[in-house]
Structure formats: C-alpha cells, structure tokens
Amino acid sequence: MTDAKQRIDAANREAVGRMIDSLPVWVDIKAAKDVVPGLKPNLILHSGPPISWDRMCLPQRNAVCGAAVYEGLAKTTAEADKMVAAGDIEIGPCHEHRTVGSMCGVTSYTMPVFVVRNKTFGNEGYCLIYENPGREKLSFGAYSDNVRRNLKWVEEVAAPVLLAGLKQMGGEMNLRAIIARALTMGDECHSRNYASTATFAMEIAPHLAASSCDRKEMAAVLQFIKQSDQFFLHLTMAAGKAIADAAAGIEYSSIVTAMARNGVEVGIRVSGLGDQWFTGPAGRIEGLMFSGFTAEDGQNDLGDSAITETNGLGAFAHAASPSLALVKSGHAADGLRFTEEMRAITTAENPNFGIPALDSRGTPTGIDIRKVIESGVLPVIDTGIADKQGRGQAGVGNARVPMEAFKKALRAFAERYSAGGSR
Amino acid sequence: MTDAKQRIDAANREAVGRMIDSLPVWVDIKAAKDVVPGLKPNLILHSGPPISWDRMCLPQRNAVCGAAVYEGLAKTTAEADKMVAAGDIEIGPCHEHRTVGSMCGVTSYTMPVFVVRNKTFGNEGYCLIYENPGREKLSFGAYSDNVRRNLKWVEEVAAPVLLAGLKQMGGEMNLRAIIARALTMGDECHSRNYASTATFAMEIAPHLAASSCDRKEMAAVLQFIKQSDQFFLHLTMAAGKAIADAAAGIEYSSIVTAMARNGVEVGIRVSGLGDQWFTGPAGRIEGLMFSGFTAEDGQNDLGDSAITETNGLGAFAHAASPSLALVKSGHAADGLRFTEEMRAITTAENPNFGIPALDSRGTPTGIDIRKVIESGVLPVIDTGIADKQGRGQAGVGNARVPMEAFKKALRAFAERYSAGGSR
C-alpha cells in the first residue's frame, strides 16, 4: 500500500512537473486538415467527451450541422442532421485530436487553427481562432449567412494577417509569458481575457505594421482584436492542451489531464489511465445571466475551455480576477475563496503563474483524483453560459465537475494499478 | 466658527465634485509654443514649485541646460548654465503654465505636448510625450547626442503618427475610461502604467493602420509604445492637470489642487488660495533601488507626476496594484494599506475609479489640508527615484509630502478666511 502510494506520488510529481515546465509558444496558423491528426473531410469535431448524435444538446447539434454545410458536406442543416444520423458525417471529440474547442467546440476540415507548440516537450495543441465579437456564432450553436461570412473572414483575412505578424516577429510568441503577465492584470485566463488580449494586440501590432500584409486588412484585424475581449482565450486553450497532453500517459499518475463538457456530460481523463473518459452529468452553471436571458435559458456546462482549470488557470486562478468575481457575485473575495479551495485537490503551485494579491503565490495546479474523492471538493469551472437555443452567450458563472466522474476514474485507477502495486 | 466650517465643507464638496465630474479626453498634440500659455522662446519649464537656479538639484539643472542647447539658446550646456544664471534664459514651474512634467519635467518651446481637454469644464492640461524607454533621458537629467536624437524622433515621427491615429479615431480619446479600466488591471496609474499603455496600444493601433501615416513610422511608433511601460503616464498626467485645475480657485475650499516636487522642495497649492505655493523639504523616497544603484544615489522627491495622487490615483489607488507593492516591499497588502490610510485625509471616493479588490469602492479623492493637519497623516506619493547624477531611473518607492507645506497652507488659509468667516 505504501509502496503504491509512493509510486503514485512520484508519478504525480512527474506529471505536474511537466505541466509547470511546459513552455507553450504560438508558432503557426494552419487549416485543421493540415495539422489536426486523424481529421477527415467528413469528420466534425466537438467539445467534451464522446456523445451519440441523439443525446447531443441542441446548440452543439446545430453547430455540427452548420459546419457540415460550411464544409459543403450538406446543402442544408436539415440534410446534415440526417447525414450525421446515418453515419455519412462522423463526429468525435476535439480532445481526441490534440484539439480543444470553445463552447460547442465545433472544428472542421478547412477551418484555420492556432498551432501552439510545447517547446519543452515538443508536442502541439490546436484551437480555432476566436470567431467573432458578435453574439451569433457557430461556437454558440448558430448558423446563418452572417455566421458563414464571419468564419470565411477569419479564414481568408484574419488568419493570413495574424500569420504575417507572427512571421515578422520571428515565428514564435511566448504564450506562457503573456498568461503570466495577464494574471498580474486582472485576468484569470478563462472567462476574463481582456489583459492577455490587450497585451497580444500591443505585441503583434508593430510586427503587423512591419510586415507586408494588406494595410486595410491589418486595420480590420486590429479592430477585430480590439472588439474581442476573449480573443486570447483561444491561444490560452491551445496552450493548455499542449501543456496537459505533456502530462498525460504517465503510469501510476492520478493527475487529471482533461476536463471537458459537451452540455450533457462532463468527462475527465487521468494521466495514468490513457485516453479513457470518465463521465458524469454536466452541471448547471450558477452565476449572472445577461440582459434578455433567464436561468432557464442556460445550457448545462459546455466546452473544452476547462482545459484552463486543468492547468491551474480559470477558477483555480480566480484570486487574480476580483473584477470577474464582482460581475458574477458582487463579492471580490469570492475569487480568493475559489483559489484557496482548489488547493485542497491539487498537488503543486505553479511558480510561473503567480497571483500578485497572494504575494505571487503560484496557482494551484494538478488535480489529483484521490484528493477530490478524499476531500469531497469538486473542481470549479469558471465559464460562459450558452443559450440553449443557440442565441449566443447568455451569462457567466461557475460550475462544478461531477463527483461521479471522479468515482469512476478512481475505480478504474484502482483496478489498473492494484495488480502492479503491493496492495 | 460653525458657519465658516460649513462654508468650507460646501466649497470642498464643490471642488471634489469637480474632480469627480471631470472627463479628460486627449484631443491633440501640439508644439508647446502653440498651446502652453505664457511660454516664450527663452523660457524653460521645470517640475515642482519655483526654485532659484543656485538651489536647483543637479539632474534638473542638467535638464534645463540640455533643453537650452536643444532649443538653440546656447551652444553648450556650460554656456546655458551661465545664461540662466544671468537671466538670459528664464526658468519657471510647469504647473504655472497648465503643464505638468515627469521627473525633471523640463519642457521647452518646440517640444510637442499632449493636449488633454476636460470636456466637463472646458479647460486643458498639457504634458510632454513619453521620451524614450531607455535609461538616458532629458527627463532624468541627461543630455547627449542620443538624448537629442530621441527628442527629435518624438517630435518628428512619434508626434505626427500618434496625431494621425487620434484624428482617424475622430479626434478624441476618452482617458477617464482607460484610467478606470487600468485600475481593474493592476495599474495604480502613477508608477505602474502597463495596463493603460497596452489598452492605449490596442485602442489606437487599428486607427493608425486605417490612417495614411507612413507605414514604417507606424511600425516604429507601435514598437516604441510596446517598449515603453510608462508611455500612458504622460496622458494620465495631462489628464490629472486638467482635472485638478478644474477644482482650483474655489473660495473657501481647503482641497489640495497641486502637489509637485523639484528634488529640493515639495510644493502644494490649495483651491481657495489661488496660485500660491506652500513648500517644505523634498523627502527621501523609501523603496527598491535598481541594480547598479544604492540608496545614496537617489535624488529626493522629484517631478509633477504627483498630480496623480492629487486626484486620487497613484499611491491613493495603490490597492489596485498588488504587483507594484510586491516590487517595492514584497508585501501585496502594503498597497491596500496606503489606500486605506489616505481615506483619513480625503473627502470623497471617486465612483468613476473603482478598485476591484475593494468591491469597486472608489479611490480616496480630494485632500483636505485640515484633515492632514488634524490626523497627522501625510499624503503618500508612489514614485520613481531619479539618480542624483542624471544616469536615469535608479529605483521606485514611496515618499511623503512634508507637514511643513500643510502647516504653511493652513496658516494662510486661516488668515485669508478668518476675516470673512464668523470666527
């Protein structure tokens, strides 16, 4: 028993050490087809753990059908629906393709993705470019001419312009440095990304100007970033995937390497348990509904953006963002409370991500499934609320990862490692 | 007595109300000669209260002489020194010309200044454009070919490019909104200006791209902003002057409308006492010395940047910047402490400048000289430390405005208003 415990503790130190040592850098933008492993023309990726078509929530179904039309796989979303049901269009989780997707997370063949490399370990993570500052978005389950035009603009204008800026700055942007800086500027890096976005704009603007990109397009892209408070989240998410994947697959490690939600179920993955998902029901998100929406409009917990919490950001770093706590509950101290609470279920503090108000104490990092079970403290996810009908973001709040997922994971962990341990 | 007290309280409400109601907007960049009232070709402005040439501190003398050479008034700084002593070159405080200057504050005839208009009250405040991110600067008492080239670049490249961006955005930038935002992003807006600078960059970049300014120059200016963490301070200072001047000249008001330092003396002005200065010795600045400097290298308190504290920013808003407190003392809580302490000597909380960690409670605003005398609490100034030899910024720390200045002011206040009061 002690032997097994020591082995697990050592494996966990290795897993969390890899998270902390990770250095994610933005190195490219590519069409998903050219870089996302296993992607096929008729495969459409979505957020969260795997789910069957008939159980999928409405916004995510709408987004899958929209992407099918966008990719020319179907003429109408109604036709797309039938094709998915018939298996002619396939669906699968982003997370199983080194990719993460915001909210519905729908990512398809031709869409451009940020390529983020973990310089320390060599692996890559991917995430779509932020779609649009408006309310109507594919990522929130809408599809229309307007949505299609915006997606095309990102593909044909924003992507090449951003890439020109990146190349001009030497082909590499240090995302860890920007995230660390943003934590000193009121972002917790999941629901508040204003500081990282402003820092990104300031960093890339001189290089865009020095590049040979079209000047009108440069102006439009800089305006787009300025209007998109959440622009940088998609880089943080791709970075998060590259960090978490580096900590995955370590024998005996009970550290969580993915937490993802599809609006129906939340799934987690554990480093020592490979690619297996352990799921429980997606919870209701408690928080503030935006004007025009009521609590009943909120889709249950949705999106791969909890990759931030998986790596000690988001709700785990909430102490860095009193502003966001104020928006949600009116009490700045709630941010501090979440960060303190998460120390009970994590194994380290990330010295690269210090929180100024806590005298630069690091963000609680590396969720140990044993600690979740023992303490009964469930990971908090600090997240946007999607409207159930696909009308866009309906609010912002906090959700908890269900205990059921951790119980299933611990059972599988005990089964797998009891044979090899001295138990 | 009660009658006089009521009259004073009412006047103070009016003065502080004007500070709070002020809406500073950046509207132009002009050569100082075209906008600063009373400026003459042979008049060189400096920070702080008036001071005779023989008593002026070395960095400020050097800066005045440098400006004289820059303006072609003298061939060498040695010649300039003699000309000032002989009265052929005149000197005077920025503050007496609707202008404020950082550190030495030296401002002369041809130098471009930010023009900031107080939209609520119609008055204007001016401040030089941030000079250079390097260490060697006129504002810190250096003059060389390098300093001259940088000043020329600001005049010939940065100023017209920034102005092109401003015009493209409609000729007006709301500085109050950027300052308010920066307070939610870790700036206290005197010694830390990273968030306001990043926000400024993000705001102006799309307009620069859409303007017809030269593209290479645009790249250089955006790079300059990116490298200049304190860039926005000079806009905050011009805004501060426009705010404080709107609160000046109110009969019976005991509210401080200027606190300025020339390295030898600190001077304050009081709303009900017109343009008169009340001075005391400039204090030592306690804090962190940068690598290569010792405490002995630090010039005593210097610069007009305490216009920020005069309006409830800087040390008064220090609770907004745990990061800066960490740099200076290693304790984030020191930031909170300064803000709490300053409530004892101020008369209002500015609802436009909320501090997130304090549940958006407003910054303590409007220093009442009576409260300073009664409480014995001296205003804190959160400031850079200049090297005595003009080698640049030597550190960052906190200084106090001397009690002597307040005692003199209260004496003058009592003399002036005892006749009119029922005392």
Count of distinct structural domains of chain A? 2
CATH architecture of the largest domain in chain A: Alpha-Beta Complex
Give the overall shape of chain A. Answer: globular
Count of individual helical segments of chain A: 13
In the CATH hierarchy, what is the class of the largest domain in chain A? Alpha Beta
Indicate the percent of residues in helices of chain A. Answer: 25-40%
By DSSP, the count of extended strands of chain A is 16
Look at the structure and name the CATH superfamily of the largest domain in chain A: Enterococcus faecalis V583 domain
Spatial ordering of strands, largest sheet of chain A: 4-6-5-1-7
* Largest interface summary: A-B, 38 and 38 residues
Kindly report the CATH topology of the largest domain in chain A: Enterococcus faecalis V583 fold
